[in-house]
Amino acid sequence: MAWADAIIFRAARACAPAANDPVIREKVHHIHLVQRAFLHLWTRSPFALPEASEFSDLAALEKWAREYHAELHSFVEAIGDRALDEVVPIPWAEEILKQMGVASPAPVTLGTTMLQVAMHSGYHRGQVNLRLRELGSTPPLTDFIAWHWMGKPEPAWAT
């Protein structure tokens, strides 16, 4: 995820209209808001999630994303494989399921929620790529398999 997130920021920096585009900004913020929300659940730490308006520009959002990925890496390194089977209560699940007409959520595990975060991020990266194309840019390839083919490179964040 860090590699793909860094690529999206790099593509947005290379597309001048993206710098002030509200769609890009909202989608990028949403990706990282959800990533952080789940990390807070997994670490059982209090939620203090900023609004998109609290970031002055895409560079500030990128800094926040980069910090998240460092925290996530530390978390993943500290847990064992058995932790992936632990049930993770999600406080907002009932609210979402009510909208779908489902009474109560089935339990989900840490492993399932981690997969959800990766899939959710990929979905919204696709929306950012669509917007970059609409703004006249060529969207970057962020596919998981491409990362493997390339030898699992480290993310190329802004310096």
Summarize the structure.
This protein has 159 residues and is mostly helical. It has six helices and no strands.
Strand and helix order = HHHHHH
Distance between the termini: 18 Å
Number of helices: 6
| Annotated CATH architecture | Up-down Bundle
Task: Characterize the structure shown.
The chain is mostly helical. It has a single domain, classed as Up-down Bundle (Four Helix Bundle (Hemerythrin (Met), subunit A)). 60% of the residues lie in helices and 0% in strands. The chain contains six helices and no strands. Helix 1 packs antiparallel against helix 3, helix 2 packs parallel to helix 3 and helix 2 runs antiparallel to helix 5. It is globular, with a radius of gyration of 16 Å. The relative contact order is 0.22. The mean pLDDT is 94.
